[in-house]
Records
---
Amino acid sequence: MPDRRRLLSALAPHRWVLEPALAVVLFAAWLLTGLPYDLSAGLALVFYCGAVALSRILPGVALGLLWVAVLLELTEQESLDGAFRVISAVAVVAALVGAAAHGGRVLRWLDFSSAILLAPAVAYLFTVRGDLKFPRFGPVIGGYYTSQGVGFLLMSLLLAVIFVAAWLLGFLVARQRAANVVASGARGPSVLVWLASNGGIESAEDDPTRPELVRRLTRAQLTTDVAGAIVFAVFALVVAGGDRAAFLVTIAFAVAVALRRMSPAVALSIAWLAAVLQMTTGHSILVSNLGVLIVLYATAAYGDRIVRAAGLISAGIGALVAALYLTVTAAVAQGYYDLLSSAIASVALQFAFLFVVSITVLGLSWVLGLLMRTWRNARVARRARAEAELDRNRAVEDVVVEQERTRIARDMHDVVAHSLAVVIAQADGARYARRTDPEAVDEALATIASTARSALGDVRVLLAELRQSHPAAREPGAHDGPQPTLADLDQTVEHIRSAGLDVELERRGSVATLGSAQQLAAFRIVQEALTNALRHGDTSRPASVLLAESSADRNPGIVITVRNTMRDTALEPTATGSLPRIGHGLPGMRERASLAGGSLTAGPIDGEFVVTAFLPGAAA
């Protein structure tokens, strides 16, 4: 990737050579086909090549030269060969793309009008003045047969489609260049847009925030598209076969299929070019025409707003052109040469039937692509919504944990403050009683040592386990005394019983080894578990609380087990479309146990919700 960027940066000042080089190639192709001796034809080709060469740096002049070249051809008396007409048509397409890509807003729409007006002029040069002739039958109007007029109209429509597709490609290039200017510093332009950019003052657009003309594909996607296009071409050639023109049509459709996901706009232009080549060479329906359906699907599934609209319009115009072309060719093949005969009704009915079938098939392909795009966007939206729900739940849990840590820090502050108050009181008493009662000094020092040791243990637990917490300021009047311990659990149980839930409290062993921090955590865990049982459990059946001293094979401490019967939720409505919300209870209890040096598990077991916690005893 750095090597490619370095190469593109080195070639950037020389991008203006692209169009003159194409003009030289067209002029060389004219030389190889034979130089016409007429001055008007030679000047016309020079003006064609000049329009192509100046389409980047002087798009307005290039558009004027293009019109001069066409007018010079129209004034030519002699008929020119088909190779000259093809070279001139290629020059018209290249000049229209350049003027739309590098011109301003006004010039761009003048270029669009020129694309529509040049189509009948070039069609006249191809049909009436060129080698492409149509069968002569029907009434003569103005010296021309009616069949020639139908053929001229059909050719004008085909060339108008090609010229408008070329203009649309240039317009998308200009829009993409403006988007790259706005998003400078982000991803660089694609190679196609880089080659088409003028390297100078960029044109402005109303809404540059649109998808790229050439989409970035992964290596697997690109390999899949190219391999699928190769399989498509081989299948079409093996099944249908055909002459050289059919082979070129199949290859063009295969290229459009390969580019359908990388650049739907370019694929649509190539598909139209292949369709026009198929009709001008006199071929009927080919197997490779399936590529049209694939490209229309891609314009709706991967294109932006303008490309989707172009695909829909192409489906309508393509159905009209296909029905008209198949009707005319079938009428000629069946000998309907007299357009005023009674067979005209059958021809009209056949045209209507073919148009309905064509618009249904082409429109269905486009609609399927739009449905796939909608389904893909909905899937992305659902995934984004699920990720947002998950992030919200994580954020809620983080807030819950942080709030619980803040409350724990506030509780520990009160515990340590109470211990220090005891230490200060004992120290002051010992200092005053030192002369009158020496034995009281020893007793005070023992009390101070015990209280300080307990407070030191609490502080160590706090500093070791309370990570990233920011205790809030202590509110005045809040928690004037020590925090509750397991000895105060009976009062909490009585409160729960009075609220409507029968609770069986059982104690096994001693809890003397627990420090104040562990006792506070145990009290809060039992309190929260009973509160959850009261709110979410079956209050018609009793809950049980077991405080058991840990067995000898484990570390000294206490095992807390709280059980309650779960409520039957079979008849309760369940929420859909979102993830379950995380409450404050379980995260708070887990954080309590973790900060006290223990662990906690909670979950349903055989119709009961069981909370089990282990809290270690204080270090000796």
---
Amino acid sequence: MVTDQLILNVNVYNSYYKRFELANVAVKDGRFLYIGGLGADTFIANEVIEGQGRYMVPGLIDIHLHIESTMITPETFSYGILRHGVTTIVPEPHEMANVFGVEGVHEMIRASEDCTVDMFYAIPSSVPATLLETTGGSIEIEDIDQLMATEQMICLGEVMNYVDVIRDPDGKSNRILQHIRSRYPELVIEGHTPKLLDLDLHQLIYAGIDSDHTHQSIEGLTARIAAGMFIEIQEKSMTPDVVDYLIQHPVGEHFCFVTDDVMTDSLVATGHLDHLVRKAIKMGMTPEDAVYAATFTPARRMRMQDRGVIAPNKIADYLLLSDLHSFELDAVYKGGKQAYDRHQPQSQPESQPRFPAHFYQSVKLSPVTAADFTVVSEKTDGRYGCRVMMVNNVSTFTEEKHSEAEVRNGLLQWQESGYGLIATFERYGKNGNRAYGLIGGDTIKRGAIATTYSHDNHNLLVVGHNPGDMALAANEVIAGQGGFCVVCDGQVLAHLALPVGGILTEEPLEITAQKVKELRSAMESLGYNHYNPIMSISTHSLPVSPALKITDLGLIDVGKGEVVPLLFDLDK
């Protein structure tokens, strides 16, 4: 029998029994044909691979991530994750959609068409995330219908405004959910349900949201699985107690691993989904169970019946590992063709601009001055209570702290408060909104950081301790049509330009990774104490992530879903 490929003497992972079996594998027309004891006497193959007792596992599948979080293009992203064994992903481009609306989704899909990694896109469901911010675009029900009619959309992406779902039956989130359930009843619906329990959690599930990828606790994990939710475990949820729970309880069908957001320097240095598999194994999970959670269960969650297993008629996406417990990757095959060989590293091909011209001119802001970081107050002179956004070094969640600040000559004396200033500027040329707040905790203690990479509205966000540094950082970002800049004492310490929509670069992976590494180091040199300072600061403007955040409309009490004042009378 003629086949395209024959792999001899390899330990094949059988997903159905969660075990490895020594076998030969035949591949034909990009799919597995045979797994068993028959070999070269039966199959005449164009390519014969000596397995040498190595381990064969399915290509890894990541069903919840945002390419924009890596700040590189789909083409560069594909090149980067293939080297880590990821062959199929489900990206949700709600970052680009917040900048350009449905056009942003279409253009991300177009930019993915020639990628080796299979990319099945999720429909952004929460653009904007709430009505408490200004974005460049939105996704409405008619846009969802257009995407379903013209593109291959695999699911409704994470429904983020859980407050809207619970409290407003006629709100946008519920209208979208009702439309999906009636018009596209087979479409998978993804969720975002941080900290919710009991009736609130069950209301979301009742509305059709049956997954969660946010930071898990044992209490939340147990409640979600008991109520029928599928759990997508990202690295920040891989605490010893959570992983031990997953090991000790029969919940293997109810969770998978996902990356959600990975910084470029981390992608190059430590890996992608393979990093989570390695980490799970090191934390005591069997390799068989860890592989299952990165291949079989994610494929089943997204109803991709043609992949995630090594079996007849399944797509021949597979990895060859020289060591199972360290998950040391030798080679990656996509559709039966080699896509990566550890012993023959390839350079990233040159990429050309892939986006429309106006995607490179999306930051419509004039330069700012130090005076733009003077906070005018409507309060009469005196001392007032103030809300402070407190950064937490183990989470992207923040806390609300009440402190005191003084208003003098109609100006908030924020530099005397003991806290930094956080400011945001609407950058789409729609209304010129700006808002100010105070910030403390595990953030910078001097200098300034400015960025347009600020979830999910991607307005210009600036944090700092003196107006001069804040203006310099902001103007560097504005001049580069978006990006990140770190400044201290009038000197630029790090700068990453993100000219595509203010959130992506078309530079090669390794160059971007080095710049991101320098950016992270510069932030830490100013006192930022966080496991991921870039993601931490970029979520200060995410009004669906607890507890106190900021948008161009003002400070947001996330739990209440409303704008709250920076200052309040001390007797209240």
---
Amino acid sequence: MQSVNSSDHIAKEKRSTSRLNNRSKSKKTRRFTIAIATTLVASSLLLDLAALPTTLAATNMSPSISNTSVQPTSSSSVEKKLYYTAVQGANYYTVALRSDGSVWAWGRNLWGELGVSNNVRYRHTFSPIRIPKLSKVTVISSSGGGNNAAIQADGTIWEWGNGNMPRQVPDITSAKNVSIGAFSTIVLLQDGTVLSWQNPPQAAILEQTRKQQTISGLKDIIQVESAGLQGYALKKDGSVWTWNEPNEPGKTPSKPTKLKGLNNISLITGADASLLALDKKGKAWQLDLEGKVTPLHHELKVKKMDGNSSYTLLLTTSGEVYSYGRTVTGKEGKVNHLSGITDVSAGYHHSLALSSEGTVWGWGSDKYQEAGAPATSSGGMVYKPVQAKLGIDIYLNGELFQSMYPAVETSKTIQLPIKAIAAAIGAEFEVHKMEDSLGYYTLKYNNRTITITPNEAHYRITSIDSSGEQLIELSEPINNYSGATTLPFEVLRGLGLNVSWDSEKSLLTIDDLEKK
């Protein structure tokens, strides 16, 4: 439905948190529901960890060193206070834009929706994963088919998902707004003209899809939307135009025509095959499949909206959220326990709200933890909105560390994906079996060895420089999240590393002082 723009948000937060209510309008796009089926393959790591009663998530493959990278980004560039500026709910996953221009995702990673791997699948994660290769992002957009797009401050467009890792779209350097749908991507350029192209069903047939084409006759456009096989554009004069988006190569988009019954429109958003529109008086309208325009709850004065074929979210000027149709909780009307909301997003099975403080709240289906936290009710449901976590950055010796498995903030500590961390710092992590069952773990670095036993909240340190050993208490035992073996970050101090956690910056730093 609407793509989401956040460049103005970032500048305003730097001046004062009290100005967050003045954020520029976010824009989103949405998607068609696509039934997805797959057979998950269990990994050897998961089999090793099956005996652990503290396991919180399942996976199908073990972490791979080849999917881990260290990016040369200085930790000094991280802002002092971070928050979310935009959010998109998709099909069993969520994408969010952070105030430093980074993009994060959580939920299900089936076909690379989370941007970290297209062949390593795991069922769920509530801890945000940073999308690689993206920086200084101003707009995000997601679709129900697992396609995602982002615009960077330099006007370039990046796409990922549905079998594709993040990659730059060629020949575009002046993008202003993007709307990615199930079948096509529509882009508004800075000069007010519009481009579109066909989304590949999968990466293997990328070259067989319809290439970029200019939508003829459109100018002075301020917003674009993709809904089914239709494209929509909003002009400065408040009129809305539409055209057909062909879903095969060799075809060209039809000539745009002006929609009747929609005047003085200030915002549009796609709702699968239909369209929602908001006029300058705060009244919402719906365009059905036959092209008929009908009022949508005109008893409410609306400032933002979002929807799909199942239900609609309406955000009032007073910051209250209303949900109508086949809602994600089965209840229509006002969504309780939300206040000061500045934007909403209608995922297919979960709903999301962005507050004036830059926090994201999710409710509805949480089978894959797409709402942003473990389910709070039976059947994998969240009926009362829960606050999603803020993505955690890890810096190793001053450089940004990135892995397909995220750091996880618990109530007591930060759990780290230890195999990936160990490989990056040059440590040796081993799993030791005893009579065909998991016995203990060892972590070796320089002249120190740490021994950890499952379910025990302590570890032992031995050193070649000492004849004895130390027993160190832990806040919680070694664990497993989303298929990765994790351990509390404090353990790394036992290796002689300087490790610190800054909750306000959501920043964990790990330094080997001997290498500096």
